Amino acid sequence: MSDSIPIFEAKNRLPYYIHKAETEGPVFLSRRGKNVAVIISQEEYNEKIVQKRSFIDEVHELRQEYLDVLDNDDIYADIRDKNDFGRPVEEE
Description:
A hairpin with a 2-residue loop joins strand 2 (27-31) and strand 3. Strands 1-2-3 form a three-stranded mixed β-sheet. Helix content is 53%, strand content 15%.
């Protein structure tokens, strides 16, 4: 992690720090010694933020990929023949 830059300095030299973010990585901005913001390149933003998929999207993709297994009733036949306690149902 690089050193942080005071906001007032970044304001005065913004093009320099944008170039630095594009070539060297994130530039951290501070106010009263505390980091409050980060300048990152568009490429890094796209990789880390925009392209990030939600958990629901991941589950949906996995479900589509394994739909043939999930919809196969033969796999679940033995499981469905059990009572509420997980024991096989005894035939009379």
